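To close the section, here is one more complete example, presented without commentary so you can practise reading it yourself. The ligand is adenosine-5'-triphosphate.
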Amino acid sequence: MTKAPPVIELHDLKKRFGVGDAEHLALNGMELVIEKGEFITIMGPSGCGKTTLLNILGLLDQSTDGQYKLDGIEVSSFGSRRKAHIRSQQIGFVFQSFNLIARLSVIDNVALPLTYKGLTKTKRLKMASDMLTNFHLEEREYYMPYQLSGGQTQRVAIARALVNSPSIILADEPTGNLDSHSSHIIMEELSDLHKRGNTIIMVTHNPRLTSYASRVITMLDGKIDTDTLMPLIEPPAVTPKRPLGAKTRKKKTTTKKKPAAKKATPRKKKA
Ligand SMILES: Nc1ncnc2c1ncn2[C@@H]1O[C@H](COP(=O)(O)OP(=O)(O)OP(=O)(O)O)[C@@H](O)[C@H]1O
Ligand SMILES: [Mg+2]
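Output:
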């Protein structure tokens, strides 16, 4: 039996913004292979290219140079309709800004990605309602976005990203600025999706959240800086009592700043 291709494969990926003196490489030769079912957290200083990378992975933006294979197929040159179709079938995107539609109720926002699935309105609302219940928002279904707190708004945005059961979830700081209760609900849901075999790529500035990940990547200046496989153990709650720096387990860290090609080879998880 032939092995399925990696879900995501990047080779020498570059993204250039601006021209002439203002030219800037937000991604500067990314090499990355992601296998189905990985839970990856991406960290790195502001401006290092995390959101740019997620936008390209989510087919919302196009690279300037290099290869992007999704399920073994080069997708960079696909037209916008084909990209939109792949997105609606396969990819759930949680944006850094919430992006809820202000004139739609909470439940209509969540049901929106189901519009083109050929489902009846009743079925779409039922699916949206079930998803909102997962995020403890069943009493807020008919609120308007402006009536929600920041944490509730972000939970609605995540419910919307997940309602059509995407196999790849891209999340850009999904718990940024949230209280620990909301963070916990979101991380538990992402963790559950991971356990069900979905691939999750999450940008975060919070080192604690890496405990949910199977692999932790740090970026610097548009490239991968470190790439670490994590042992598979049950993550602690988001708000453990122990101090931030106190690690309970060791990371297995790959050598820093290796040649790019070496990092692109798929690695096996430790049992
Ligand atoms: N549309 C754009 N036009 C010009 N430059 C851009 C554009 N989008 C991003 N950049 C630049 O690309 C670089 C990477 O930006 P990006 O948003 O990917 O950073 P980030 O790692 O997500 O940062 P943060 O942690 O602050 O969200 C930055 O220097 C940014 O100014
Ligand atoms: Mg960003």
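Once you have examined the tokens, check your reading against these statements. The first helix runs from residue 50 to 57. Residues 240-271 have pLDDT under 50 and may be disordered.
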